[in-house]
Give the backbone structure.
Amino acid sequence: MAAGKGEDLKLLGLDESPFAARVRMALSVKGVGYEYIVQDLFNKSELLLRSNPVHKKVPVLIHNGNTICESLVIVQYVDEVWAGMGTSILPADPYKRAVARFWAAFIDDKLFPAWVGIMRAATEEERAEKVKETFAAIEHLEKAFVECSNGKAFFGGDSVGYVDLALGCFLFWFGAVHKMFGVEIIDASKSPLLAAWAGRFGETSAAAEVLPEPDKAVEYAMKLRAKRAAAK
């Protein structure tokens, strides 16, 4: 894969970051090559701090010296800059694009803090509340899949699209939550369409190339837990 003749493309990321995985899968879908520079978020590099001085986090895409931050913004940028490569990530129709953006934002604004809250909960009561919030968000996404997929394999239709990447990047962390707390975030008995989608998404070349095993997320979660405990 190549970014293009004369182009310099770097991605600052972390294997355990679902948001970096989102961008890496988008680049895979488009068939765009890049230099992947792994970051240590426990000891942030000068390159990361200089490239993303506002949030100081990954992912950061550096394209010909210009920095683009925030994973959903980066995915849109990748789709627009390399529009002639691979398959389109966002729909061409303006309404469908708006719908895709809505659900991607919902995933980050509602689902993400809910499932992360399961891991960070200080009490079982708090954890139970976050499980409830997570299942409520998944219920909405089960219905969204019907609307967006139009009976096809992915939110994006016949191929992986914007919402697929937005949700699919969390799948290995969902596996970690199950291993650590016994919570099946996408339960086939409650969300059969999403469960079937997750199986298909996991078999795509983009997901197979990028997403690590849940055990790697479990290991990283334990490191984060130890760091928080040490800071108290």
Q: What stands out?
A: The CA atoms of residues 178 and 184 lie 5 Å apart.
